[in-house]
Amino acid sequence: MRNFDLSPLYRSAIGFDRLFNALEANQSQSNGGYPPYNVELVDENHYRIAIAVAGFAEQELEITTHDNLLIVRGAHKNEPAERTYLYQGIAERNFERKFQLAEHIQIKGAKLENGLLYIDMQRIVPETLKPRRIEIK
Fold first, then answer.
1. pTM of the predicted model as reported, rounded to 2 decimal places
2. H-run or E-run covering 27
3. DSSP three-state, residue 89
4. Nearest Cα to 117, choosing from 95, 88, 102?
5. Spatial separation of the C-alpha atoms in residues 93 and 74, rounded to whole Å
6. Residues facing 61 on adjacent strands
7. What's the CA gap between 121 and 92, in Å, rounded?
8. Residue 15's pLDDT is what?
9. Which of 38, 93, 98, 117 could link 51 by a cystine bridge, Cβ 3.0 to 4.6 Å?
10. CA distance 133 to 31
11. Residues near 72 by Cβ (< 8 Å), separated by ≥ 6?
12. Which stretch of DSSP H or E encloses residue 49?
């Protein structure tokens, strides 16, 4: 995949910074699909992301949100000594996975269970943006 430098557009485009940040976030997914994840629609306004983080402890995982961007990082605190593998099928490398969130999506919580990190989200639309019924008199 090619990487494009979007910095010249910042000089002439006003108010499109969120769009450019989304494009840059998608470009940075050069981790080869590691770790694998699922995005699940629980019901109309609830979502769940499940990320396979086997081998990581709770203290080695970090979840942050900023400007509708969810960032999940996994970093081993102390690297184990060099090992001699006959076959290595389990990836133990550090990772950073980014997810672009739609407007009005709030993170409700996260839990680590059986090697899967679950992040629960909810769409909360403000009352002013919900459809209103106008009565005819």
1. 0.72
2. helix 17-27
3. coil
4. 95
5. 8
6. 74
7. 27
8. 52
9. 117
10. 48
11. 51, 61, 62, 63, 95, 96, 97, 98, 99, 117, 119
12. strand 46-52
- DSSP for residue 90: S
Q: Which residues contact 4 (CB under 8 A, 6 or more apart)?
A: 23, 27
In the chain the first and final C-alpha atoms are separated, in Å, by 60
| Beta carbons within 8 Å of 77's beta carbon, 6+ residues apart | 59, 60
Q: Which tokens hold the place of 67?
A: 């400007």
Category of 68 on φ-ψ map: left (φ > 0), alpha (ψ -120 to 50) or beta = left
- Grouping H, G, I as helix, E, B as strand and the rest as coil, residue 22 is helix
The torsion angles phi and psi of 47, rounded to 5 degrees, stand at -130, 160
Return the bridge partners of 101, or none.
Answer: none
pLDDT in tens, 62-118: 999 988 899 999 998 876 678 888 998 887 789 999 998 888 899 999 999 999 999
Q: How far apart are CA 39 and CA 118, in angstroms?
A: 10
Exposed e or buried b per residue across 117-137, where buried means at least 16 C-beta atoms within 10 angstroms of its C-beta: bbbbbeeeeeeeeeeeeeeee
Radius of gyration of the CA atoms of the chain, in A = 20
